[in-house]
Write a structure and sequence with these properties.
301 residues
Length: 301
């Protein structure tokens, strides 16, 4: 009893003397330390000691393990020879849509910077809430979309998703959190269209499930790694990433309007059979080269 009281007094003294440094640990972590009878150590204010202190928490270790699990799935999928399953193909399909992968990583940064855990969760919940109905009943929903004005500009949905994901990272505070929810819905709609219009698409549940789980992993895993380090220092890197996403969206949009260049058919090679290809043409070999003689009267009737 006396030991527990002493631990409480030590924690209280740390909070009173250096509240800013003590806030580096969450309330749940502090309660866990109290239950275990371990005196709370003073958290470093900044620099590498603070990073090491965060990396030693159970929350960060779980986030690192969750992030590494997704990378290992891709690594062993590409290294080990095996027959691909539909769940695995769905996971890899999401990673193959490069522009939307960048958009989802932008959303992940927005989740990491969210002001509260509730706002961060709302971004992920809206993403899942938009995609799940699309995957479950894709055909009726796509018919409605195709017959609406949106059906005329479906090719712009993916660039718009990348642009919104990047623009969100330039907004401050609450504006960023609310805009990220809207951007999450646009990115989710765009990815659902890619999945639904694929040859495998929603007709195979395992394929759609793998694509859905990979999308959630792309948003949640990096966010869990970054969120313990959130602060003012993350603002400038986030805006740099946002700028890249905006530029990429513009490049992708411009590429959609570039006309296709027609390549002229190759002129057939003329050898000894040139007379058969072009009437009135004579061929003579001189010094390893070929001299073509054209009869002007060959083209006259």
């Amino acid at each position: 009893m006396a030991s527990r009281k002493n631990n409480e007094q030590q924690i209280a003294s740390v909070d009173n003397t250096d509240a800013q440094s003590a806030s580096a640990l969450s309330r749940a972590e502090r309660r866990r330390l109290l239950r275990e009878g371990v005196a709370q150590l003073e958290a470093p204010k900044a620099g590498w000691p603070r990073i090491r202190a965060i990396m030693q928490t159970s929350t960060f270790r779980f986030a690192a393990a969750f992030f590494a699990a997704g990378l290992l799935i891709v690594f062993f999928s590409q290294v080990l020879p095996h027959d691909y399953g539909f769940l695995e193909l769905g996971w890899l399909f999401t990673l193959s849509v490069y522009d939307l992968v960048l958009a989802m990583l932008g959303l992940s940064v927005a989740v990491a910077m969210a002001g509260t855990a509730r706002r961060a969760a709302m971004i992920v919940v809206v993403f899942a809430a938009v995609m799940l109905p699309m995957l479950l009943v894709f055909d009726p929903i796509f018919t409605v979309i195709r017959e609406s004005p949106l059906g005329q500009v479906l090719f712009l949905v993916a660039p718009a998703a990348v642009f919104c994901s990047g623009a969100v990272l330039w907004l401050p505070g609450k504006w960023r959190d609310h805009a990220a929810i809207l951007a999450s819905a646009i990115v989710s709609l765009s990815l659902a269209l890619f999945i639904g219009l694929d040859d495998l698409g929603v007709g195979i549940a395992d394929f759609a499930s793998g694509a859905f789980f990979c999308a959630l992993w792309l948003i949640i895993a990096p966010a869990l790694l970054l969120r313990p380090f959130r602060g003012a220092w993350l603002t400038i890197p986030a805006r740099i990433i946002g700028s890249w996403l905006i530029v990429i969206s513009m490049i992708v949009t411009a590429s959609l309007y570039v006309p296709d260049f027609q390549i002229a058919p190759q002129v057939p090679a003329m050898g000894d059979n040139a007379e058969q290809i072009l009437p009135g043409v004579g061929v003579q070999s001189q010094g390893g080269g070929t001299m073509i003689q054209v009869d002007p009267s060959a083209g006259e009737p």
